[in-house]
Design brief:
binds zinc ion; Immunoglobulin-like; elongated; 8 helices
Length: 329
């Protein structure tokens, strides 16, 4: 809840006179409300706090409801008090609510009082955008063939073992991703009766280097690069990526299972994206990997879901990353 009151440029004597006047005329028709409106279109970075201004007349004794259009209905997100003067500029802070959807619509509604008529601002259309993170510790970090981790051998210091079934020795994740995976597993179990198995979480730089080298020996470099990241370019090195499957199913078959389909539909609700979807090889540089989940946080995951956006490259607007830069090929 936020309320910011800014005293208008009106002298105290004028305020007293104005309020006295309104009381005296209370038996008559309420005075019309004027709202000097706000910016009607805006493009804002998701998750930032931003203040817009409206001026309300009369202001004394009013409340204003900041409303968002959700499924055709106006939903009040916050209430502001605007009672400092006959005419008052009102700082309206919009934050967080628009982070989960690419486009949202807002208005400010002033209910009628005994002395003033109701009023509503014009509808504001806000387009959110996300910027890719550079910090390897950020859930919004973008790691792909064009964007290595910096430094290349970065490793998180706060790894934990999630309370889910695991397989193999790479069973650690960053705490935010571990907790989200536990929630996803619980939701999957409630919905399908089946449980997730964590096949591979955090993998250190040296291990990724050896793994990629092994694939290069077996398949050649060009083919290996379509399904295995070079060290320093792997999301597994952030501790935010988890390869998962269903018990008894090779992870490469996970996408064909009912649990795999459920995860594809619901991972976003717990802050994950299926990072390498079908048909996006030209954008991500990798074949489809239905088992590879990347924790990005609930707002960004919801933004992709609601916007029908399938890859982080598109969500961040960075352009495709199908291959390594020429110097690294
Ligand atoms: Zn993976």
């Amino acid at each position: 809840m936020f309320a910011r009151r800014v005293l208008a440029f009106v002298a105290v004597a004028t305020v007293l006179l104005a309020s006295g006047t309104m009381v005296a005329h209370a038996d008559h028709a309420p005075s019309p409300t004027s709202v000097v409106s706000w910016r009607e279109h805006d493009r804002q970075r998701a998750g930032t706090v931003w203040t817009d201004l409206v001026t309300v007349t009369p202001a004394l004794g009013r409340t204003a409801e900041l409303q968002e259009l959700v499924d055709g209905r106006w939903v009040t997100r916050s209430t502001l008090t605007v009672d400092d003067g006959y005419s008052a500029p009102l700082g309206v802070r919009l934050t967080h609510h628009w982070t989960a959807r690419p486009v949202t619509w807002w208005r400010l509604h002033l209910p009628a009082t005994a002395t003033a008529a109701e009023a509503t601002t014009a509808v504001k259309r806000v387009e959110a955008y996300w910027e890719p993170g550079d910090d390897p510790a950020s859930p919004q970090v973008l790691v792909n063939k064009e964007r290595p981790l910096e430094p290349l051998d970065w490793a998180p210091r706060d790894l934990v073992r999630p309370d889910v079934a695991t397989l193999g020795r790479h069973d650690l994740l960053r705490p935010v991703a571990a907790e989200a995976l536990e929630r996803l597993d619980a939701a999957a179990h409630a919905a399908t009766g089946e449980r997730l198995v964590l096949v591979s979480g955090f993998r250190p730089h040296e291990y990724q280097d050896a793994l990629h080298a092994r694939y290069v020996r077996g398949h050649g470099r060009a083919e290996a690069d379509t399904f295995s990241a070079r060290a320093g370019h792997s999301e597994h090195q952030t501790g935010l990526a988890a390869d998962v499957t269903r018990e008894g199913v090779p992870f490469t078959d996970f996408g064909t299972t009912s649990l795999g389909r459920w995860v594809a539909d619901h991972a976003w609700e717990h802050g994950f994206v299926v990072r390498y979807p079908e048909g996006a090889e030209a954008l991500t540089g990798y074949r489809a990997e239905p088992w590879h989940l990347r924790f990005v946080g609930e707002d960004l995951a919801a933004y992709l879901h609601h916007g029908g956006i399938s890859t982080l490259e598109e969500a961040f607007g960075t352009g495709p990353a199908p291959t390594y830069p020429p110097a690294e090929r």
